[in-house]
What we know:
Blueprint: H1 3-14, E1 31-41, E2 44-49, H2 54-67, E3 73-76, E4 86-92, E5 105-110, E6 113-118, H3 121-134, E7 150-159, E8 165-171, H4 179-191, E9 196-200, E10 202-203, E11 206-207, H5 216-219, E12 223-224, E13 246-247, H6 252-263, E14 268-275, H7 280-285, E15 305-307, E16 313-315, H8 326-342, E17 347-351, H9 358-361, H10 364-372, H11 378-395, E18 399-403, E19 416-419, H12 424-431, E20 436-438, H13 441-444, H14 465-469, E21 488-495, H15 503-510, H16 513-522, H17 530-546, E22 559-565, E23 568-574, E24 581-585, E25 596-597, E26 602-603, E27 610-617, E28 620-629, H18 630-635
Parallel strand pairs: 2-3, 2-4, 4-6, 8-9, 8-21, 9-14, 14-17, 17-18, 18-19, 19-20, 20-21
Antiparallel strand pairs: 1-7, 5-6, 5-7, 10-11, 12-13, 15-16, 22-23, 23-26, 24-25, 24-27, 27-28
Bound molecules: acetamide.
Acetamide (ACM) binds at residues 353-354, 403, 420.
Amino acid sequence: xxxxLFTFVFTLFxxxxxxxxxxxxxxxxxxxxxxxGSVTVESEIGLVLDQENELISTMLDNFSSELKPLGIQxxxxxxxxxxxxxxxxxxxxEEDSVKLGKExxxxxxxxxxxNLQAIEPAGVFNGLQTFRQLxxxxxxxDEEGNKEPIVLEGMRIVDYPRFGWRGxxxxxxxxxxxxxxxKDYIDQMSKYKFNVFHWHLTDDEGWRVEIKAFxxxxxxxxxxxxxxxxxGSQRPYPKKNEKxxxxxxxxxxxxxxxxxxxxxxxxxxxxxxxxxGHSMALLAAYPELSTRKELKFVNPGSKFANWFDDGTFExxxxxxxxxxxxxVYAFLDMIFxxxxxxxxxxxxxxxxxxxxxxxxxxxxxxxxxxxxxGIKDSHELQSYFVKRVEKIISDxxxxxxxxxxxxxxxxxxxxxxxxxxGMQGGIEAARSQxxxxxxxxxxxxxxxxxxxYSVENKIYDDLSLEKAYSFDPMPNPNLFVDIDPELxxxxxxxxxxxxxxxxxxxxxxxxxxxxxxxESLWSPLAAKDYKNFLGRTEVHFxxxxxxxxxxxxxxxxxxxxxxxxxxxxxxxLSSDFDDIEFRYTIxxxxxxxxxxxxxxxxxxxxxxxxxxxxxYRNGQSIGRMLLIDRKDLExxxx
Length: 638
Ligand code: ACM
């Protein structure tokens, strides 16, 4: 059935008011209905603000600058002097009859007016993002400079989020992103209704926030020697007297500026100071806070650990604070004091992940401290440290959140847990009445490889778009009946930047998987549909392209799988799309487009051969050609 015939039949069946409108909005709204009427946008939108509100006015100023490239002016007031044929009317409602909550909104497009209603400015912001997505990304003028009017069909949207914590984390330690880059990243995420920016400010590779009490943290800790090559294995250690020139940090004034920028976009910033592990940059500045007190360097990505098959590791360079040293707590008290003063967020993240205990276990002073305090093992010692940090943070009027290792040895009262090694830590924490943010690596680690290894950077693991789309932060209520759903605050995607040296590549790795995560966090479960999401994602590929930020289109490329069958190596190719076909050669020949059309599993014959595959849609190539040599194909059998 063609789409128009389908629409006609559907309309007859349901009546116009109940018709689900076609749309390309991400994340999918709670409810979208087609209604009678339409709105035509030419070159002006008259703004009617039913209430004065400073934050909404700022949001509208920003929105108005975004519409300028489309040739649309926002004029204030729909009064007699206004020439605008189209009005945008914004109302803050007192009555929340449809559960909009703090961030929800209603958007009604019809009869020349766009009515946007919300309970709070956050809802207005989210409604504006939806409205922006109803408009095209760009609009070309004809030879006389006239632009085609934009016609929006009548539509009523009622929308609100499933979860209150919808985050993205950016690691600015492994790679330093400038203030302008961080703002741009926040700007993009806010368009998809993310509302938490988790700023991973410190790690072994750089300390990125000015702390006035300890200037060496940034004088020394923010800079490392410049190295390229593979992170963690191929980067030589700093040479004697080599100047540390790569890095940077944010002054407190810059941090305030970024916080204000984010607030105008309904984004709260959660700062992370990662202790007691991941502290090599701190210790480069203040080595006396480690057990060995040896002079360290800020790690340029040189080898620092041995990793074992069971997931455990041994640090070959000490990067942990000494939990038996009272000076460590006095130091952290001052750091978290400045951080609490700077960031208005309710939560402060103290890291707590991947803390190697070997240096503690080998240090006599630490062992004596444990004996004195009845601490039986290094897990309990870490728990002792975390509890003291929790006290420091809660004394400053903030709530502490940390990675799920903070559960080990006993969780500090009042601490919230960010569950990253799967959902289990979060489930355990919620069972003991702690708040949880779910960031399970197998669903939301945005640094993981998202396409074929022959064209993508191979890193710790893989994460496909479909898998990210299947993320649900809520433990299955049928299985986990003892969990209070209110304790699951939401979830977040995490972008670690060991191998991400630019903002452009950060976007490439973040999107489209962040679209999937935003939908997992915002949209009702019942509205989720991967095929439908893919169609909308393709429209947003274009929006990103048109904005000059290119994102990953690996979903156009096949998934290549190999298995042995009757002693033959058989290869299958598959795609998320029904309308994509593959052409391939397996005899080292070109052009691949003239090669075989893939219909079923084929044999990779013996010999020094390469598989070449190219995707096509409507006769046009799409995505990149994969080129996989025999050795790699064989490796995929394992
Ligand atoms: C983490 O990925 N180490 C939290």
